[in-house]
Amino acid sequence: xxxxxxxxxxLIIDIGTYLVKLRARNVVASSHKLRMARRLxxxxxxxxxxxxxxxxxxxxxxxxxxxxxxxxxxxxxVGNAWADFVSPLTLPIWLFxxxxxxxxxxxxxxIGVLTSVRQHD
Length: 121
What we know:
There is one protein chain. With about 120 residues, the chain is an alpha+beta fold. Helix content is about 65%, strand content about 15%. It has 3 helices and 4 strands. The chain has a 4-stranded antiparallel beta sheet with strand order 1-2-3-4, with no helix packed on it. Helix 1 runs parallel beside helix 3 and helix 2 (about 30-55) packs antiparallel against helix 3 (about 90-120). About 20% of the residues are buried.
């Protein structure tokens, strides 16, 4: 169920960004600033996505959580070793963390494009 909700959220972000780009195509399609903003958004998103999807943070002295903003797995210290608690949803949640962070900067570019289009109308 969680995987379905996360997938729908990513699709909504992707479709919304695509629709804004379609609407703005006539106004700013050849804009050098738009191309640079999109490249910067993709580069920032990829870096942020990799960083956040591989992020681990301490929950307590003996427990670490892997993945941000959605925890994908838990590691607990048992003696001198770390025991992992993963589920079948670990990979989909990890991929959703990655996708969310990649698409988040695109949303800001889309908002900027939409603002620019409204000013030209």
